[in-house]
Amino acid sequence: MKKLSVLIVIHNEEKQIEDCLKTAKFADEIIVILDKCTDNSIKIVKKYTKKYYLGNWEIEGERRNFGISKCTKDWILEIDADERISLKLKDEIKKIIQTSQYDWHKIEVNNYLGTKLINYGWGAYFGKSAYAGLFKKNKKVWGNQRVHPNIDLFGNEGKILTNKLTHFYCKSIFDLVLKLDSYSSARANDLKFSKSNESLLKNVRRIFSRFWKCYFLRKGYKEKEVGFLIAIVAAFYPILSYLKYKEKL
């Protein structure tokens, strides 16, 4: 019988980590990485697993790779504190890990803004439509970027799972704007320490290309005002990151 590790990496998630952990109890082990946590997250985590690790990481990929290294089972399911595993998805995952001849599978995602499901317009680093969340041990490695790290996947990709993960991505429109500020600050630090050839003109062009991708190609217009806002946030992420980067020089 193949066994499953669930990996959750958190920072100060006392308000939502318990709801996440409740949906992960079917796993053979739960691994939680607590990064710079100063709230009551650890007290909640202790009720669900003994396999938790405290640390202080500046690089997103480093803390996630550390978490993967602590997983001991055949398969790993990687989720975040704001995500929930439905009963149907749980049953599908249990079946997949016993029958799959592949090395990793993507999971599609239902992204919520508050209590409203937003189906269209996500992308360009805001929300996620699908991700390589279910994978065998040693088949996934995160990159060293501070925000939205690159991912290396090894072996063969299996089919996308039928059932979707529930993702409470933003509590409100204000929360979406806060993510823009946080993500762009982290991206600015990545630009500072990388040798990428960024320019003002290149990032101005991205305003239009990213808006087009989110609002039209990914059909954000179907979500009306919210879809327009998502496209605006995605469009201004690169230029805001670049301007913050220039400010640091």
Question: Would you kindly provide a written description of the structure presented here, covering whatever features stand out?
Answer:
Strand 6 and strand 7 form a beta hairpin. This protein is α/β, with parallel strands linked by helices and 249 residues long. It starts with a strand and ends with a helix. It is 40% helix and 23% strand. Helix 5 (173-193) packs parallel to helix 7 (224-248). Strands 1, 2, 3, 4, 5, 6, 7, 8 and 11 form a 9-stranded mixed β-sheet that branches.
Tell me the layout of helices and strands.
Elements: E1 4-10, H1 17-23, E2 29-35, H2 41-45, E3 52-55, H3 60-70, E4 75-79, E5 83-84, H4 87-99, E6 104-113, E7 116-118, E8 130-136, E9 140-142, E10 151-153, E11 165-170, H5 173-193, H6 200-217, H7 224-248
Parallel strand pairs: 1-2, 1-4, 2-3, 6-11
Antiparallel strand pairs: 4-8, 5-11, 6-7, 6-8, 9-10
Helix pairs in contact: 5-7, 6-7
Residue-averaged pLDDT = 96
Secondary structure: number of strands: 11
Residue share in helices?
40-55%
The helix/strand order is: EHEHEHEEHEEEEEEHHH
Number of helices: 7
**Overall geometry:** globular
Reported for the largest beta sheet, the result is: 9 strands, mixed
The span between the termini is 55 Å
Strand content: 15-25%
Query: What Rg do the Cα atoms give?
Result: 18 Å
